[in-house]
Design a protein that fits this description.
The complex is a heterodimer of chains A (about 550) and B (about 200).
Chain A lengths: L5 H5 L11 H21 L2 H13 L9 E4 L3 E4 L6 H4 L6 E3 L2 E3 L4 H4 L28 H10 L14 E2 L3 H13 L12 E8 L5 H21 L20 E8 L7 H11 L4 E3 L8 H9 L4 E2 L14 E2 L5 H12 L9 E7 L2 H14 L5 E7 L4 H7 L8 E5 L2 H11 L6 E5 H4 L14 E5 L4 H17 L7 H21 L5 H11 L26 E5 L5 E3 L7
Helix pairs in contact in A: 2-7, 3-7, 6-7, 8-17, 9-10, 11-12, 17-18
Chain B lengths: L11 H15 L11 E6 L7 E4 L4 E3 H5 L5 E6 L6 H18 L5 E6 L7 H10 L6 E5 L2 H10 L13 E5 L6 E6 L3 H11 L4
Parallel strand pairs in B: 4-5, 5-6
Antiparallel strand pairs in B: 1-8, 2-3, 2-6, 4-7, 7-8
Helix pairs in contact in B: 3-6
Classes of the chains: A alpha/beta (about 550), B alpha+beta (about 200).
C-alpha cells in the first residue's frame, strides 16, 4: 500500500494528502468498494432491512421506537433519534452552519485510511475537507454508536446521541451502512453523466424549443469548461482532483394521455438511464412524472410547471406551488383585516387540472371567511361561452379569472362596458402577456404575481440576459427562461460540490441544503429549501399595471 | 473571539495557540463552561421595531413580547432543521421543565429563521413536539422581520443553513444580554439564568 512521507504524515488532515494521482485514487476506490461490497454480501437481507429501519425510521427489531440520549440529559425517540435525521438518507452527512455531520456510508466508514475520499467541497468549510480516519469495524462502530467514541479514541461532538443498541442491532446497522451509497447511481458513467428533461404534449413547441436550446448550450459550456473547474487556483477546493465527466442531455417528449406517461418514461429510462431530470415543462399536469420520479428514486429538479402535485414525492423539487399558491395569496389579500373584504368573488376557470386545482384551493382558502365564492366554469373558446360563464356577474362584483391571455382577450371585449369592480388574474397563467388589458379594464385589474418586481428583479435576471446574448439565444419569456437558467446553474453548482459522490439521494440532500446559498438568478424574490421542503418560492404580490405598462406592487409580499 | 473546537490533528503552531488561549482564559473574565463547548459573553442589543406573529396567530410588536415583565431566554431555530435546532429546542424543553419546577418566572422565546416556511400552524406543531408550555412562545413573521431580529442579536450568518447554536438571556429591559454560543447543556443554561438574579 501507499506509504505516506513524513511531511504528509505531519499534515495528515490537510490538503497535501488529497493531491494523489487520479490513477491511484481510482485504484483505491475500486478496492474499497470491493471490500465493502464483499462485507455487505455476507449480511442477510433481513439483517440489512433491520438496519434500514433503525437508520431511516428509528424503529427497532421489536417494533419499539429507537431511543437515544444526547448531552446525558436529552432523550430522543423514534424518527428524531434515527441516524438519518443527521447523517441523511444517503449516509453522506451534511454541514449545518460550521458543524459537519460526517459521512458514514460504507465507503467512508470502512475504507482504508489511505483512501482519502472526500464527501463534499463546501465554500463554508473551504479548508476542512477530509474526514479520513482508520477504518471502523463492528467493535469500534459499537463504541461510536453506544458511547459516542470516535475510532481515533476522541469523544465525538455533543450532537452525536448515545444509543443502547444490542449487538444484533449494531450488526444490522453495520450491514445497512456497508451497502449504502456504495455504487454510483444509474446514469453516471466512467466519463459521462446522463441527464434528461421532460416535455408534456400540451406544451407550445416554441416554448419547449427555447428550454432545450438553453439547456443544451449550458451543458456545452459546462463540458468545455470542466477541465479547468473554475479556472481559479485560490482556494483549496479549486485544487481537488475529480473525475472529468461530460454531461449529456436526453429530451423525453411525452405523447398521448397522462395515464400513459408513466410507461413512456419507464421506457426512456430503461433504454438510457439518467442520473437526474433537470428542468422540464408542462402546461397541464405533472403528477404522472412526479410519481415516476418517486418510483425510480430519480431526482427531478425544478421543472416549469404551474400546477405541481399538492404533496410532491421525495425526489421532486419545484419552484413553487403554482396556481394553488396564487389562490392562497389572493385569499390572504382579500381577507386582510385592514381592508374591506368583498362580499362575493366569482371565480371563472377552465375544466382542466390547472383550473380545478386553482379554484379548489381558492374556495378552500376562503372557507370560514365572510367572502362568498361562486364557481363558474368556462367551456369552449367562443364569446358566447364566456357569456354563459359570466352570467350574473355585475360591476359590483370581484372576479378571479383563472384564464390565460387568449381567453382574457375575449373576456375583455365582452366586458368592455361593464367591468367588475375588481378583476384578478393569475401571473402564472398570463405568462407576462397583458395584451388583453385595456384602458377601461386597467383601473380594475390586479395580477397575482409570484415573481419579483422592479429593480431587484432587474438585478436578478441580468446574468441570464447577458448569457442569452452571449449565445445569441432569444428572450421570449423572462420568468420561464430564468427558471431554466437557474436550473442549469444550480446543477453545475451542486454536482461540483459533490465531487465524485454522484448518488441520487445525495443530490436531493445537497439541493435541499444549498438552494438558498447560491445566487438567485431567477425571477422569484428568493428561493429556499430545507429538509422535506419541496417548494422553493413561497409567496406572491398583488400587482397592478402602471401607466408605463409595467407591473407595480399593490401589496406587500404575501406568504400564506 | 476564540473558539474551542476539538482538533485532533494539529500542527505545533496550533498547540502553541491553544496554550496561549488557555493562559489567556485563566486571566480573563470568561466563564469556562464545564464541557468547554460554548463561549459566554455579554452584550447589549438595540431592539428593532418589528412585528412578529406568535404560534397562535397573535400579531404583536416584538418589543412588546420581549418586555412583558418576564426574564427572557431566546433562541433562533427553523422547523425543518435537522441537527442543531432539535438540540437547541430539546435544551429549551429541559430548561422549561427545570425552571417550572423551581417556580421561576421566565419567558422562552424561539424565533424562526425560516419564517416563510414556518407558519403559525407549523410552529404550533413544533411546539407540541417539544412540550412547550405557556412560558415558551414561538415567533414567525415576514422574512424581513426575522432577518432584522437576527441582525439585531448578531445571530445573522447570511442564510438559515449557516446558523449557529446560540442562546441569549436577559433579566429585565436595560440589563445586558448574556450570550451563550455553542453547545450548552440545560443545566448550564439554568445556572446562567440563575446568575442573572432575575427572580431574586
Amino acid at each position: 500500500m501507499f506509504m505516506q512521507s513524513p511531511i504528509q504524515q505531519m499534515l495528515g488532515c490537510q490538503i497535501l494528502g488529497l493531491l494523489k494521482s487520479r490513477f491511484f485514487f481510482s485504484l483505491l476506490f475500486i478496492f474499497s468498494i470491493t471490500v465493502v461490497q464483499a462485507d455487505s454480501l455476507s449480511a442477510s437481507p433481513e439483517e440489512i432491512e433491520l438496519g434500514r429501519r433503525i437508520y431511516l425510521e428509528g424503529v427497532l427489531a421489536s417494533g419499539e421506537p429507537l431511543k437515544a440520549v444526547r448531552q446525558n440529559t436529552v432523550q430522543l425517540e423514534g424518527a428524531s433519534a434515527a441516524c438519518e435525521a443527521c447523517h441523511r438518507r444517503s449516509g453522506m452527512g451534511s454541514l449545518e452552519g460550521n458543524i459537519p455531520v460526517p459521512p458514514i456510508s460504507g465507503r467512508f466508514l470502512y475504507a482504508p485510511i489511505e483512501d482519502r475520499v472526500l464527501a463534499l467541497v463546501d465554500t463554508r468549510q473551504a479548508k476542512d475537507l477530509t474526514r479520513a480516519h482508520v477504518p471502523y469495524d463492528e467493535k469500534s462502530l459499537a463504541k461510536a454508536i453506544r458511547d459516542g467514541m470516535h475510532v481515533s479514541g476522541r469523544e465525538m461532538s455533543i450532537l452525536m446521541p448515545h444509543y443502547a443498541l444490542t449487538d444484533k442491532e449494531i450488526k444490522a446497522v453495520s450491514a445497512y451502512l456497508s451497502q449504502l451509497s456504495v455504487s454510483l447511481s444509474p446514469g453516471v458513467g466512467d466519463d459521462s453523466v446522463h441527464f434528461s428533461t421532460i416535455i408534456t404534449p400540451d406544451v407550445d413547441p416554441k416554448k419547449s424549443a427555447v428550454m432545450i436550446d438553453m439547456l443544451r448550450h449550458a451543458f456545452e459550456q459546462r463540458n468545455s469548461s470542466q477541465q479547468t473547474y473554475s479556472g481559479r487556483m485560490r482556494m483549496p477546493l479549486d485544487l481537488i482532483p475529480r473525475k472529468l465527466r461530460n454531461w449529456d442531455l436526453s429530451v423525453w417528449e411525452l405523447k398521448g394521455a397522462p395515464d400513459t406517461w408513466g410507461v413512456q418514461l419507464a421506457e426512456f429510462n430503461k433504454k438510457d438511464p439518467v442520473f437526474a431530470v433537470v428542468s422540464g415543462i408542462s402546461a397541464s399536469t405533472w403528477n404522472p412524472i412526479d410519481q415516476f420520479c418517486q418510483q425510480e428514486k430519480l431526482p427531478c429538479l425544478l421543472p416549469n410547471v404551474i400546477s405541481p402535485p399538492e404533496n410532491p414525492s421525495y425526489y421532486s423539487l419545484y419552484f413553487s406551488r403554482g396556481v394553488v399558491l396564487e389562490a392562497e395569496v389572493l385569499a390572504g389579500y382579500l381577507t386582510d383585516k385592514e381592508k374591506k373584504a368583498p362580499h362575493r368573488v366569482v371565480q371563472i376557470y377552465r375544466d382542466n387540472e390547472v383550473g380545478m386545482n386553482a379554484s379548489r384551493a381558492f374556495t378552500k382558502a376562503l372557507a370560514g371567511s365572510e367572502v362568498i365564492v361562486e364557481n363558474h366554469v368556462l367551456l369552449g373558446t367562443k364569446q358566447d361561452d364566456l357569456k354563459v360563464a359570466m352570467k350574473g356577474v355585475s360591476s359590483k362584483d370581484s372576479v378571479m379569472l383563472w384564464l390565460n391571455s387568449s381567453d382574457l382577450a375575449v373576456f375583455n371585449k365582452f366586458m368592455a362596458k361593464q367591468v367588475p369592480q375588481n378583476v384578478f388574474v393569475s401571473g402564472y397563467l398570463t405568462s407576462e402577456n397583458y395584451s388583453f388589458n385595456s384602458k377601461a379594464l386597467n383601473p380594475h385589474l390586479r395580477v397575482v404575481y409570484p415573481y419579483e418586481l422592479g429593480d431587484k428583479r432587474k438585478k436578478n435576471v441580468t446574468a441570464m440576459k447577458e448569457w442569452l446574448k452571449s449565445w445569441r439565444l432569444p428572450l421570449v419569456d423572462e420568468p420561464f427562461q430564468t427558471e431554466v437558467f437557474f436550473d442549469a446553474l444550480f446543477l453545475t453548482d451542486l454536482t461540483s460540490q459533490m465531487l465524485d459522490n454522484l448518488y441520487r439521494d445525495y443530490l436531493i440532500e445537497r439541493a435541499e441544503d444549498m438552494l438558498s446559498l447560491g445566487s438567485n438568478v431567477s425571477a422569484y424574490p428568493h428561493l429556499s429549501l430545507s429538509r422535506g421542503q419541496r417548494f422553493a418560492s413561497k409567496g406572491a404580490y398583488i400587482a397592478r399595471i402602471g401607466d408605463d405598462g409595467k407591473l407595480v406592487a399593490d401589496s406587500a409580499y404575501i406568504v400564506p | 473571539m476564540n473558539t474551542f473546537k476539538q482538533n485532533f490533528c494539529m500542527s505545533s503552531k496550533s498547540w502553541l495557540l491553544i496554550v496561549v488561549t488557555i493562559l489567556g482564559l485563566a486571566f480573563s473574565n470568561w466563564s469556562w463552561a464545564e464541557s468547554a463547548q460554548f463561549e459566554r459573553s455579554e452584550d447589549n442589543y438595540k431592539i428593532p421595531d418589528v412585528n412578529v406573529v406568535r404560534q397562535d396567530g397573535y400579531k404583536s410588536a416584538f418589543v412588546k413580547e420581549l418586555d412583558d415583565g418576564r426574564p427572557v431566554l431566546l433562541n433562533f431555530v427553523f422547523v425543518s432543521c435537522s441537527a442543531i435546532c432539535p438540540m437547541l429546542s430539546h435544551v429549551f424543553s429541559k430548561v422549561q421543565e427545570k425552571l417550572t419546577k423551581e417556580g421561576q418566572k421566565f419567558h422562552l422565546m424561539t424565533i424562526s429563521i425560516d419564517p416563510e416556511n414556518d407558519t403559525p400552524a407549523s410552529l404550533t406543531e413544533y411546539a407540541k413536539k417539544f412540550a412547550a408550555g405557556e412560558n415558551w412562545s414561538f415567533y414567525t413573521g415576514t422574512r424581513e422581520a426575522s432577518l432584522t431580529l437576527q441582525k439585531a442579536f448578531k445571530a445573522y450568518r447570511g442564510d438559515k443553513m449557516n446558523h449557529a447554536s446560540l442562546i441569549l438571556m436577559r433579566s429585565i429591559p436595560g440589563k445586558s444580554w448574556v450570550r451563550l454560543e455553542g453547545f450548552v447543556s440545560p443545566d448550564e443554561v439554568v445556572r446562567e439564568f440563575n446568575a442573572l438574579g432575575a427572580n431574586k
